[in-house]
Amino acid sequence: MQIYVVDSLDRERIVKAKAEFQAIIKDPFMLNSVILVFANKQDMKGAMTPAEVGQGLGLFELKNRKWHIQGTCALKGDGLYEGLDWLSSTLKR
């Protein structure tokens, strides 16, 4: 299982975030892991949408991997439980 948090407001770092994310998921120990991405700071003007974050990380190119991207605002708690609920139900399968 992997939980990866992205600052959706920081468009300049998405390239670096992608490189780090791809290195993690290609690690032999992570090849079959379930992936949850939190696209944080969704409450801020100019933040990337969860779809933009997913595109930036290369999530849509992943084959044979279970993953989910959840928009969040960690300060308010928005989206956190929804993402963790997805993770919990996916791991039970």
TrEMBL record:
Query: Principal place where this protein is found?
Result: Golgi
What is the name attached to this protein's record? ADP-ribosylation factor
Keyword field contains Nucleotide-binding: yes
Give GO BP annotations, semicolon-separated. Answer: protein transport; vesicle-mediated transport
One CC-aspect GO term: Golgi apparatus
Q: Does the keyword Metal-binding apply?
A: no
Binding residue positions for GTP:
N40, K41, Q42, D43
Query: Family per UniProt?
Result: Belongs to the small GTPase superfamily. Arf family.
Q: Name one GO molecular function term.
A: GTPase activity
Query: What lineage does UniProt assign to this protein's organism?
Result: Eukaryota, Viridiplantae, Streptophyta, Embryophyta, Tracheophyta
Q: Name one Pfam family in it.
A: Arf
Question: InterPro entries in the record, alphabetically?
Answer: P-loop_NTPase (IPR027417), Small_GTPase_ARF (IPR024156), Small_GTPase_ARF/SAR (IPR006689)
Q: Kindly state which keywords UniProt assigns to this record, in alphabetical order.
A: ER-Golgi transport, Golgi apparatus, GTP-binding, Lipoprotein, Myristate, Nucleotide-binding, Protein transport, Transport
Q: Where in the cell is it found?
A: Golgi apparatus
